[in-house]
């Protein structure tokens, strides 16, 4: 059976990782002089405290070549096919590191590296799709061809509570961050063709903003693939998450509604209070 591996930005819960037998290759989070593996040694809440204390954005880095080789080697030594997913190559060098690892192992014939052209559970949706195909006995070539077909259909967007983290990370000007804070603006960020782009700016309390954001996607959600939808957040009040989940349940469109918390890398850049509804559009 094909082995599925993803970098840690897929933001899948431990339960889903176990259910689908997915190996996770962590990226790195650098807080000052300390280097942590994503999901191993530092929590998003600890990252927020460090960032607020130092008024600085944490640095994030791709996995090392050695770590990628170590992740692939057990399966390559068995002659087993591997399909490996990375965060968008326009956002990280992880994709290139994974490809180099396959080359170093002389395993390009066994290891297929896929640029998800997405982030967070926009990656995770593709990873689960691949894992289901692997369990059904599909080959790496068949899986890669299918992912290439559905990849443009992945809908990944989220609403940001505070612009401070995007500003600290150089993704938002100081003036925009200041004005956004003063006016209580919460931008919608969407991923398209591997890049993040700003969209509508909401104004008001975040709990109402998030529900409005979700409700505005009703037509898209009703036309979406029915197997699953993700609510992915970076630390939101339980009642806010519950209100979005309840609304999605009332739609009656999805076989599974997964609630997952974003990992350290994604949280480092978006900050607390961010929430997204992610799904695959109907073909």
Give the SSE layout.
Blueprint: E1 3-7, H1 14-19, E2 22-25, E3 28-31, E4 34-37, H2 44-54, E5 59-61, H3 65-77, E6 82-86, H4 94-104, E7 111-115, H5 121-135, H6 140-150, E8 154-155, E9 157-159, H7 164-168, H8 174-183, E10 185-192, E11 195-203, H9 206-215, H10 218-222, E12 228-233, H11 238-251, E13 256-261, H12 264-270, E14 275-280
Parallel strand pairs: 1-2, 1-6, 6-7, 12-13
Antiparallel strand pairs: 3-4, 3-5, 8-14, 9-10, 10-11, 12-14
How would you summarize this macromolecular structure in one to three sentences?
The chain is built from twelve helices and 14 strands. The protein is of the alpha/beta class.
Describe this entry's structure for a reader:
With 283 residues, the protein is α/β, with parallel strands linked by helices. It has twelve helices and 14 strands. The chain has helices at residues 14-19, 44-54, 65-77, 94-104, 121-135, 140-150, 164-168, 174-183, 206-215, 218-222, 238-251, 264-270, and strands at residues 3-7, 22-25, 28-31, 34-37, 59-61, 82-86, 111-115, 154-155, 157-159, 185-192, 195-203, 228-233, 256-261, 275-280. A four-stranded parallel sheet has the order 2-1-6-7, with helices on both faces. Residues 169-183 have low confidence and may be disordered.
């Amino acid at each position: 059976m094909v082995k599925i591996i993803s970098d840690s930005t897929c933001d899948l819960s431990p339960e889903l990782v176990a259910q689908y037998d997915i190996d996770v290759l962590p990226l790195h989070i650098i807080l000052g002089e300390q280097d942590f593996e994503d999901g191993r040694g530092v929590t998003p809440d600890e990252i927020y405290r460090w960032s607020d204390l130092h008024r600085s954005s944490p640095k994030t880095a791709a996995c090392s070549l050695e770590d990628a080789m170590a992740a692939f080697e057990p399966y390559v030594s068995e002659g087993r096919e591997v399909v490996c997913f990375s965060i968008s190559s326009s956002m990280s060098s992880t994709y290139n590191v994974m490809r180099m690892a396959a080359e170093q192992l002389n395993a390009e014939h066994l290891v297929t590296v896929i640029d998800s052209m997405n982030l967070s559970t926009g990656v995770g949706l593709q990873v689960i799709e691949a894992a289901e195909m692997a369990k059904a006995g599909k080959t790496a070539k068949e899986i890669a061809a299918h992912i290439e077909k559905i990849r443009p259909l992945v809908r990944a967007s989220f609403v940001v509570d505070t612009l401070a983290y995007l500003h600290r990370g150089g993704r938002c000007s100081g003036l925009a961050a200041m004005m956004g804070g003063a006016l209580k603006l919460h931008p919608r960020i969407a991923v398209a063709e591997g890049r993040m782009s700003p969209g509508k700016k909401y104004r008001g309390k975040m709990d109402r903003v998030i529900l409005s954001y979700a409700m505005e996607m009703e037509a898209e959600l009703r036309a979406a693939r029915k197997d699953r939808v993700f609510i992915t957040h970076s630390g939101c009040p339980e009642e806010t998450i519950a209100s979005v989940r309840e609304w999605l349940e009332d739609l009656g469109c999805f076989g599974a509604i997964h609630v997952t918390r974003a990992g350290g890398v994604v949280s480092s850049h978006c900050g607390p209070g961010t929430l997204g509804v992610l799904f695959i559009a109907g073909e």
